[in-house]
Amino acid sequence: MRRIKVRVAYDGGEFYGWQVQPSLPTVQGLLEQVVGEIEGKAVEVAGSGRTDAGVHALAQVAAFTLENPIPLTNLRRAINRLLPPTVRILSAEEVHPDFHPRFEAQAKTYEYRMLREEVCSPFEWPYVHHYPYPLEEDRMIRLAAVFTGSHDFSAFAAADESDTAGKSKVRTIFSSVLEREPGRLIYRVRGSGFLKHMVRNLVGTLLEAGKGNLAELETLPPKSGPTAPAKGLFLVEVEYGE
Amino acid sequence: MRRIKVRVAYDGGEFYGWQVQPSLPTVQGLLEQVVGEIEGKAVEVAGSGRTDAGVHALAQVAAFTLENPIPLTNLRRAINRLLPPTVRILSAEEVHPDFHPRFEAQAKTYEYRMLREEVCSPFEWPYVHHYPYPLEEDRMIRLAAVFTGSHDFSAFAAADESDTAGKSKVRTIFSSVLEREPGRLIYRVRGSGFLKHMVRNLVGTLLEAGKGNLAELETLPPKSGPTAPAKGLFLVEVEYGE
């Protein structure tokens, strides 16, 4: 038996999120189907965490256990041949037998893309939150930095996060930076882990500050403003120890 | 009556090409519907030329005549509000009353994108021809330059170009360059005009040269190799005199 770790890119607009759902297309569901086809029996594919419907991944991390002795390069190619082009295995490596992509993850990085130009190109539209209205960008940049550190992020979790009731909602943000790029605002956040909807709620709160709301910008504010749309969000990287 | 010239971007993967076709989604059909809705009666939208199903446009040029006195900025916004996000009006300006985007075009530029990396990202897949196999790129670069100048391009026209039978197939290519970019080959061609399928057939011929076929690379070869896939092709710009 071999434990295989893979890095996976996907266009979230094509899926009902990462996690298996009966009779809906999900990335985990598709991978379990394709890897199971190669193995000749049901295979469980574990991810580093869920992504919501519409959220994209540049490099999600997943793992599964195989008996099939197929070399890693051939395995990657065989999986990609069976997947639609909206999901790609970027790399495959063998890891220790009890590797779990969620429990061993040490950091995750997300990126949220906001387009500030008046007209949104058809080629960018599925991958940005188009917000061409006035924003006090300096206030947003100041607030983004305030998210850094260890905080109880309960206020930024999805209301329906019932499966984690009683669990700690403290998370550590290693870096939280809003940057101006030509015609764009890019929010990059790297942390120990994230609650459901947390990044999109942080962005919704940044947008509230940009609209001139939230008088106090020196401490973590309450969640404020709607959850930002999924299509601007990318899971960029999941990091593991050596 | 005002004659309006617009620059239009579209994702060709969403349409059966530019030209109106009964009961199929086309860019021209959609624009005529939306502009007609604003004008309150049928409006004819003329383009600088057709693009095939699947071919993208960064800036196609079109024109139509309006009685409606709506200011240009409002017109652009109103059209974009009624269009799906897969088509965008980038700019609108008033031009002389008999402006025709096809007859007055002085040059067109196309770009064809080939991805050479083994794995094609889900985000790039709709917009490149993925060709990860060996190619003698230096031969392709040499041949691309040979296309420059005035030639009879009959051999590179679509077999079914019956509507132009008897018309000259001589076209002038002002520049024709194949460039290496990291993991990519980009073909850029600027010319007085192009026959149906011509750019995709030029690219198919470049690929044949890259595979080691076509012994003679000093003169215009016969069309060779299949028509390259539409999804790698972008209409980049249409130029007009002052």
Give a written overview of the molecule:
Two copies of one chain form a homodimer. Chain A is α+β, with helices and mostly antiparallel strands and 242 residues long. Chain A has two domains: 2-95, Alpha-Beta Plaits (2-Layer Sandwich); 107-239, Pseudouridine synthase I, catalytic domain, C-terminal subdomain (Alpha-Beta Plaits, 2-Layer Sandwich). In chain A, 19% of the residues lie in helices and 31% in strands. Chain A contains four helices and ten strands. Chain A has helices at 27-39, 72-82, 137-146, 198-210; strands spanning 2-10, 46-47, 56-66, 87-95, 105-115, 129-130, 149-152, 170-181, 184-191, 233-240. In chain A, strands 1, 2, 3, 4, 5, 6, 7, 8, 9 and 10 form a ten-stranded mixed β-sheet that branches. In chain A, a hairpin with an 8-residue loop joins strand 2 and strand 3. The first copy, chain A, is globular and about 60 Å long. Chain A starts with a strand and ends with a strand. Chains A and B meet through strand 4 of A and strand 4 of B.
Short structural summary:
With 242 residues, chain A is an alpha+beta fold. Chain A contains four helices and ten strands. Chain A is globular and about 60 Å long.
Key words describing this protein structure:
alpha+beta, Alpha-Beta Plaits, 2 domains, 4 helices, ten-stranded mixed beta sheet, 19% helix, homodimer, 242 residues
